[in-house]
Input
Amino acid sequence: MTAWTPARAAMLCELGLQAWLPRPARPGEAAVGAGATTPSLRGGDSAGPERQVPARAVEAAAGGPARMSNSGPARVAPAGLDWPELQRAVEDCTACGLCATRTRTVFGIGHRRARWMIVGEAPGEQEDLRGEPFVGRSGQLLDAMLRVLGLTRSADSPARQVYIANTLKCRPPSNRNPEPEELARCEPFLVRQIELVQPAVVLAMGRFAVQALLRSKEPVGRLRGRVHHYQGVPLVVTYHPAYLLRNPLDKARAWEDLCLARQVCGA
Ligand code: SF4
Output
C-alpha cells in the first residue's frame, strides 16, 4: 500500500480530490477503504465510448518502409528535418483526410530539449482553433498535475519545462475517434519530435496515444504502473486528463504514474 504522505495529500487536494481523502480511523474503528491509509479506487479506463486501436503494421506516410523494433515495426521519422522544417511539413501535410477539415494543425508546445515529453491523443475543438495541445479543462488539469511536480509548459528551463505533443496533429471531425490509418500516417511526425527533443521520459496520456505507441490492445489500466520503451525512450502510461475529469477517483492512480515518471526521469 502507498502511504498517504502530506505531499501526496497536497497533490490530491491540488487536483480537486480533497473530498474523498480518507479520514483517520477513530480508536476502535476500522479504517475506511481498502487499507488504513489507502482509499478505495475504481479500476480500468473503460468509461466513455472509446474504441481500442488495433495493433498493426504501419507504413509511415512520410518515411517509407518501416523497420522492426519492440513488438512491431518501428515508425520511420521524416529523416533529418530540423524544427522549422518539421513544423512546415506538418502544416503542409495532406497525408490523411483530416487535412480537409482542420482549422489549424496542432504541432506541439514547450521546451524543445525538455526532459519530460507529454504525448496526448488528438486535438479537440479548442486545440484546433488555437493550434495548441491540451487547452480547455483538460489542459488546466494537466497544468495542475505538472505544477505539483514543479513542471510547466511555460517556463524557460529544460529541467522545469515539458514538451507537449499529440499523436495526431489534426482534429478528427466532431471529435470522433481517430482511425488507425490516420494515426499511422501521422506518427512519423511524432517520432521526429521525440528524436529532436531527446526526452528522459515520455508520459503517454490516454488510450489512443498509449495503444498506438505501444502497438497494444490492452487498456490503459493494464499498461500503467511499469516502464515501457518507445523509440528507445522510457515511456510511462497514464490516463488522459479528459478521462480523469470524468473519473476523478483515478486521479490517485495518475499521481502514482507521475511519480513513476519522475523516478524514471531522475528528477
Ligand atoms: Fe497529416 Fe497528421 Fe494532419 Fe493527417 S493528421 S493530415 S497525417 S498532419
Remarks:
- Confidence is low (pLDDT under 50) at residues 18-74.
- Residues 52-265 form a domain with the Uracil-DNA Glycosylase, subunit E fold (CATH 3.40.470.10).
